[in-house]
Specification:
Layout (H helix, E strand, L loop, with lengths): L2 E5 L1 H19 L5 E6 L3 H16 L5 E4 L14 H4 L16 E9 L3 H11 L6 E9 L11 E5 L7 E5 L9 E5 L1
Parallel strand pairs: 2-3, 2-4, 4-5, 5-6
Antiparallel strand pairs: 1-8, 7-8
Helix pairs in contact: 1-2
Amino acid sequence: MRARQIMSAEEIRRAIVRVSHEIVEKQGGANGLALVGIQHRGPIIAERIADAIYSNEGVRVPTMALDVTPFRDDLDGAFDADAAGVIPDAAIRPYDPSTTTVVLVDDVLYTGRTARAALDALTHLGRPAAVRLAVLIDRGHRELPIRPDHVGKNVPTARAERVEVRLAAAGAAEDEVVLFG
């Protein structure tokens, strides 16, 4: 399988900074925002976006991680997310949903099924004032009518290809995005 780098560490950094500016611009400031990273690399990207917002706006946007596995519609078997403790207790949620625009953050948007599962998971935390979606890579091939509001890079791919986001904070040697195919 052939592999080629489609984003370097510097390109990832620039994309995250640009996305942070877009998020703040669309919100009309940094107040009233929360970033919710979809496990596993989404929380790392959400923290980096929050750091970029803080550098530019001087406002610390709350972040949290969200495991959407129990809400996926492509896994077999029923799973009780509340019983498994997957959904964080409302007492530890870093934002008030009724007054907050939640930006879901993920590394790669492909079929849209993970984003749909994240929307379902968010309802367990309370209904946000608004929800937006930010992704580092949009590779197309949607199976659901889901469109990101903020994209680091659009990468047209074939279904047989695979996009891998590697982040040093997640154990990779360096930050990069690699296309296999």
